[in-house]
Amino acid sequence: MKKNPISIKEIHKVEGGGMVTLISVARNQYDMKNIDSYVEYVKKISTRFYYGLWNNGDGVEYDVLYAINTDNYDIIQKHLNSHDEINNMIPQQVAITIYDDMSIKITKNEHLNKLYSKV
């Protein structure tokens, strides 16, 4: 499997432009030994997937992401909440939507906001 760095701009182009929302399925994934299970999971959802590397201050997190061509809030929420079984029943926190002008919008998971507001 070839793994070359790709920019957000390139992902936007590969995914057809317009509105491209990235959904991660890996959550707090600091241990690379489990990354293959996330890759196999995403392959059931999408023909293309991306690896993301994020530094959240506590260490580097390895994500496996796929793209959907929409910025529809309800559809994004559905995707954010549909992968919790692979993450110990914890849904994804956010999705990132990329627009033609390369601006981005973060969509927070409303389900998590409701859970945390009850605490």
- The number of E-state strands comes to 5
Structural class: alpha+beta
Count of DSSP-assigned helices: 4
Could you tell me the radius of gyration in angstroms?
14 Å
* Poorly predicted residue ranges: none
Succession of helices and strands:
HEHEEHEEH
In what order do the strands lie side by side in the largest sheet? Answer: 2-3-1-4-5
Task: Describe the global form.
Answer: globular
Q: How many structural domains can be distinguished in the coordinates?
A: 1
Average pLDDT level: 85
**Helical percent range?**
25-40%
Largest sheet: 5 strands, antiparallel
Strand content: 25-35%
Ends: how far apart?
Answer: 43 Å
Structure, explained:
The protein has one domain (8-117). Strand 4 and strand 5 (104-108) form a beta hairpin. It is built from four helices and five strands; from the N terminus they run H-E-H-E-E-H-E-E-H. Strands 2-3-1-4-5 form a five-stranded antiparallel β-sheet. The chain has 119 residues and is α+β, with helices and mostly antiparallel strands.
